[in-house]
Amino acid sequence: MADTGTGKWLPSYQGFPQAWGPHPRKRMLMTPLLVFLGGIFAFAVPTLVAAFFQLMFFNAPVSNNWAPLSASAIEGRKVFVANGCVYCHSGYTRPQDVRAGLLYLYPRISLPGDFVSNDSSPNLFGTARIGPDLSQDAGFHPDDWERAHFSDPRFVEPMSIMPSFAFFTDQQVEDLTTYLQVRAGKDGLLRYATELYAKKVQIIANGIEDPPIGFQGAKLTLNDVKDLAENGSNPPPGKIFGLEWPAPLNIFGVDRSYWLADNPLPVTKENLLRGRMVFQERCIGCHGDKGDAVSEAAKFLRPMPIDFTSADDAGGGDDTSAGMLYYRVLRGIQGTAMENFGTRLRVDDIWRVVLFLKTIPNGGLDPDKVPTTDMYIQWQPPDGLLELVKNMPIQKNVDFTEKSEPDDPFVLAARRFLAGFNNDDKFDLPGFGELSLAAARDGIKAIYNQLLDQGWNDYFTRGGSPSVPTSQRDILPAFRIDQR
Ligand code: HEC
Ligand code: HEC
After folding, report:
1. CA-angle at 111, arms to 109 and 117, nearest 5°
2. Region 261-276: what's the mean pLDDT?
3. What is the Å distance from ligand 2's center to 141 Cα?
4. Distance CA 174, CA 348 (A)
5. Total structural domains in the chain?
6. Structural domain boundaries enclosing 440
C-alpha cells in the first residue's frame, strides 16, 4: 500500500459489460403534449374523486341533532360572517378536536348531517382556532354574558385577545347572540332552554329586573351599578325552613355533598397567594378588581356578580360554605353569568381561589398587601342552614332498585340546574310557582319545543331545503353523562 496517493492500487473499473449495445438516443421520450395531458389527468382525478363526486353523490342524511335556524339566527349568521368571527372561530369538531371542545363540557363530534340545509351555505367551518370552536357553544353562557363579552371580551375574560365589537347595534347583538345559542342543533337548544328557564327562576328569586338587551347596559355608569346592587333587588316574601329568598335557590343549585363541606386545603400563605393570582387572572372582570362587584361587566349582567367584601357573608352566610363556593366555581351557576370553570381551572386552584375569597373582607385584594393567614375568615354553618339540612338531609334517599339515570334528557337538564333537589322536593317560589324537578323538567321542555318550533316555522316560511320529514323533529336531544 505504498502508493495509495495515486489510486493505482484500485482495480480498473468498468461501468458496463462490453457486450452491451450503445446508449439509446439522448432525448426525452415524453412529448410536451403527453406531459400536458398527464398533468391535467393527475390533477383532475383526485379533484373529481375528492370534490366533485362528493358533491354529486354524497347526500348526507340529516343528523338526529340537526335543527333549522330561526329568522333572527339567520340574520345573526350574516353578522358573524361580515365581522370576521369565522376567521378565529371554527364551526365543527373532528374526533381529534374533541378534547379542545371540552371547554364546554359537552363536546360533540360533528357529523356531515349537521350541516345539510341550504342555510348552512357557505359553510362556516372555518380553519383557524385562535378562539374556541363555537359549534357547541350554545347554552354554555346566558345571553347577558354574551352581550358583555361582545362589548369588550376583557369585561368577562380578563386575558382575552378577542377584539371588542362595541360598534354593533342592539339588533345585531341580539341576532348574533341568537345565532350562537341556536346553531348547535337540538343538544344546544336543550342547554339554551335550560339557561332561559334558570334565568327566569334567578330573576324572580332575586327580585331583580331582566338584564338589559343589546348594549343598553353600556349606558350605565359604575355608580348606577353600585346603586343597583344596593337597592335594585326586592326578593319575594316567604321563607324555606327559615331561609329567605334567594338563599334557598343558591343552596338547591348545589349538590348536597357540598353543603357543609369545608375547604380541604390548609390556610397557608402560598395557597392564598396562588388563589389571589387565579382571582386576578380570571375573576376580576365581573367581580371587580376590589372584589366588590362594581365592574364593567356588572352593567350587563342580571343577577349581578357577587360582592365578596362582606365579612358577614364570608363568615356566616347561609349559602357560603367553602364547599358551596367551590361547587359554583367548578360548575358555574345556571341562569347567571357565573362561568363554569371546571374545564379551565385545576381542581386544586379552585379550592385555593375559594380559600382566598374569604380574605377579601380583610384586605386580601389590597394592592399594597399580600394576603396573610390571619385575614382568613372561617365559615360557621348558620342556624338557617342547619335547619334546612335537618329537613333535607345530605344523605339522599336513593332507591337502588330504581334506574338511577333516567333517559329523559329534560329530567337530566332539570337535575343539572337544581342539583340539590331530590325527586320529591317541592317548594313554592312566590311570583313563579312550583320549584321542583318535575316542574323544571316541564318548563325546560316547553321552552325547548318553542325554540325548535320557531326554527321549523321559519325554515318552512323561507322555503328551506332539503325538506326534512317532521319525524326528525320528534327525535329527542341528547344529554350526555359528561354534561351533568
Ligand atoms: C382575533 C380572533 C377573534 C375574533 C375575530 C373573534 N373572536 Fe371570539 N374569541 C376569540 C378568543 C381568543 C376567545 C377566547 C377568550 C374569550 O372568551 O374571550 C374567544 C371567545 C369567544 C366566545 C366565548 C367562547 C366561550 O364560550 O367561552 C364567543 C361566543 C365568541 N368568541 C364569539 C365571537 C364572535 C361572535 C365574533 C365576531 C363578532 C368573534 N368571536 C370574533 C378570538 C376571536
Ligand atoms: C362573567 C362574569 C363572572 C366571572 C368571570 C366570574 N364570576 Fe363569579 N359570579 C358571577 C355572577 C353574575 C354571580 C352571581 C350569581 C348569583 O347571583 O347567583 C357569581 C357568583 C359567584 C360565586 C357564588 C357566591 C355566593 O356567595 O353565592 C362564587 C363563589 C364566584 N362567583 C366565584 C368566582 C370566581 C372564583 C371566579 C374566577 C375564577 C368568578 N367567580 C368569575 C359572575 C362571574
Report:
1. 135
2. 97
3. 13
4. 37
5. 2
6. 71-217+403-483
What is the mean predicted confidence (pLDDT) over 255-274?
96
Please name the helix (run of DSSP H) or strand (run of DSSP E) that holds residue 239, with its range, or none. strand 239-240
Q: Quote the pLDDT of residue 120.
A: 77
Of the residues 332, 366, 391, the one at which a domain ends: 391
DSSP code at position 165: -
Q: What separation in Å is there between the alpha carbon of 175 and the centre of ligand 2?
A: 26
Residue 301 in this model has a pLDDT that exceeds 70: yes
List the residue whose alpha carbon is closest to atom 39 of ligand 1: 85
CA of 338 relative to ligand 2 center, distance in Å: 4
The atom of ligand 2 lying closest to the CA of 353 is 35
If asked whether residues 203 and 307 sit together in one domain, one would say no
Quote the ligand 2 centre to 460 CA distance (angstroms).
41
Which tens digits make up the pLDDT trace of 433-468? 999 999 999 999 999 999 999 999 999 999 998 889
Summarised one tens digit per residue, pLDDT across range 377-396 is 999 999 989 999 998 888 76
Q: Whose CA is nearest to atom 9 of ligand 2?
A: 338
Q: What is the DSSP string of 49-66?
A: IIIIHHHHH--PPPPTT-
332 and 303 both lie in a single domain:
yes
Give phi and psi for 434, each to the nearest 5: -70, 135
Q: What is the structure's pLDDT at 481?
A: 55
- For 86-105, the pLDDT digits (tens) are 999 999 988 888 777 666 77
Write out residues with Cβ below 6 Å of ligand 2.
145, 156, 250, 278-279, 282-283, 285-287, 297, 301, 303-306, 319-320, 325, 328-329, 333, 336-339, 341, 353
Map residue 76 onto helix, strand or coil.
Answer: helix
Which residues face 429 on adjacent strands?
433
What is the number of alpha carbons within 13 Å of residue 348 lying toward its C-beta? 5
State the CATH number of the domain containing residue 226: 1.10.760.10
Ligand 1, residues 88, 283, 345: which to mutate, most atoms within 8 A of Cβ?
88
Any long-range contacts for 93-96 (C-beta under 8 Å, 24+ apart)?
A: 93/133, 93/135, 93/136
Which residue has its alpha carbon closest to ligand 2 atom 29?
325
pLDDT tens per residue across span 112-135: 899 888 787 778 999 888 999 999
Return the pLDDT at 360: 96
Pair (169, 241) in one structural domain: no
Determine, yes or no, domain membership for 352: yes
Residues 234 and 375 in one domain: yes
The verdict on 153 and 273 lying in the same domain is no
